[in-house]
Design a protein that fits this description.
Number of helices: 14
Number of strands: 0
Radius of gyration: 25 Å
Strand content: under 5%
């Protein structure tokens, strides 16, 4: 019996340690670290929401359901952490004192939530109660202090999304971005836009890698998304540098690089297969016919285009291939709203895939193989 109590005490200690480790990896370490417990909670909650959203045939209704997914997942994560800590301390109290399991759970809960209505005997039990109270306050304070940082990053992200609607429409379109820029003030007006979106991508890269839950927070309007906005501005810049007959714009090229690096880093965290060193001739999801239709629309609006259309297509594909896979994968993962050249690229429409790449073994192996090949 003594051996059993020692084993239960050790198991309880391990549960508490691993739970704290998960909380630290999720909230405190400023980089994209995999926390298996946090991922399991988010995936489980997502599947529950998927069962409910799957019955909504209208996208706006599905979006309303999924708008609660990320906030509910964070609350569920806190509940899971607290439950595991209670279970761990119950095991330690049971192993330390000759009490029943119900008494051990009562001691653990009273200590963790600093209620004080149940106390153990002896100095070691008192020390356990003190540490349980400290951990309970730590977990609650961690989430409370985490939320302002999260929503601050979310507000910065959504400010860029809302501003892009003015220039690229809703849903955002790279073709419309160039078309409208030419109509209202010639393409020189885009110079400042490239620079501001380079900063936007840098900020999203840092914030969404540090706080991966931000990826699933939806925009203010059902037909807006940070993923489709990223695709719209990147397509606009790719068309600008490849096909518009204008002087070279280094800011646009730097913005594209900042954009595909941002999308790749986030896609890597979710094990979305993304080539890191694609060849300019690799296939992309945009067809030549779609590109020609875009050029026809721009030419009709008066936008000057390069005469060598074949070379322009190769240049556009060479830019697009850098972010194509990451953009489509993230649009599918986040159930992005309908938008040209991004969320309309995957075959199963705008439904959430039942099996997520960042949970399945196949997705993990595919993501690792792609990164290894690069």
């Amino acid at each position: 019996m003594i051996v059993l109590r020692i084993l239960v005490f050790a198991l309880g200690s391990a549960i508490v340690f691993l739970t704290l480790r998960s909380a630290i990896r999720t909230f405190l370490v400023p980089r994209a670290l995999q926390a298996h417990l946090s991922r399991a909670v988010f995936v489980t909650v997502r599947r529950v929401f998927w069962l409910r959203a799957n019955h909504r045939h209208d996208y706006v209704r599905r979006d309303k359901v999924m708008a609660f997914y990320a906030p509910v997942s964070l609350l569920a994560l806190l509940i899971v952490w607290l439950t595991l800590v209670i279970a761990g301390y119950a095991g330690m109290f049971w192993g330390l004192e000759r009490v029943s399991w119900s008494r051990a759970v009562t001691l653990a809960g009273s200590s963790l939530f600093t209620l004080g209505f149940a106390r153990g005997d002896g100095i070691i039990s008192a020390l356990l109660a003190f540490t349980a109270a400290a951990i309970g306050l730590f977990l609650l304070a961690l989430l409370i202090t985490y939320l302002p940082s999260l929503y601050s990053a979310l507000a910065r992200r959504e400010a860029g999304v809302s501003k892009l609607e003015v220039r690229a429409g809703r849903p955002p379109s790279g073709v419309y971005l160039l078309q409208l820029a030419w109509i209202v003030g010639r393409l020189e007006s885009l110079h400042g836009l490239w620079k501001s979106w380079e900063d936007w991508f840098t900020d999203v890269d840092q914030s969404h890698s540090s706080f991966p839950a931000l990826v699933f927070f939806r925009s203010l309007h059902a037909d807006e998304s940070w993923v489709t906005s990223a695709g719209g501005i990147l397509d606009g810049a790719s068309l600008y540098v490849s096909s518009a007959d204008v002087p070279r714009e280094p800011e646009a090229e730097f913005m594209i690089r900042a954009g595909y690096l941002c999308l790749r880093h986030i896609a890597d965290f979710f094990w979305i297969p993304t080539p890191h060193d694609p060849a300019p001739t690799d296939p992309i999801s945009v067809t030549r016919e779609e590109y020609e239709a875009a050029c026809a629309t721009l030419a009709e609006a008066g936008v000057p285009l390069k005469p060598d259309r074949e070379q322009a297509w190769r240049d556009f594909a060479g830019w697009r291939v850098n972010y194509d896979a990451a953009l489509i994968g993230l649009a599918r993962l986040t159930m992005a709203p309908p938008a040209p050249w991004s969320s309309d690229r995957y075959p199963d429409g705008h439904y959430i895939p039942p099996a997520l790449p960042w949970l399945s073994r196949h997705g993990r192996e595919a993501g690792r193989a792609t990164r290894g090949a690069s």
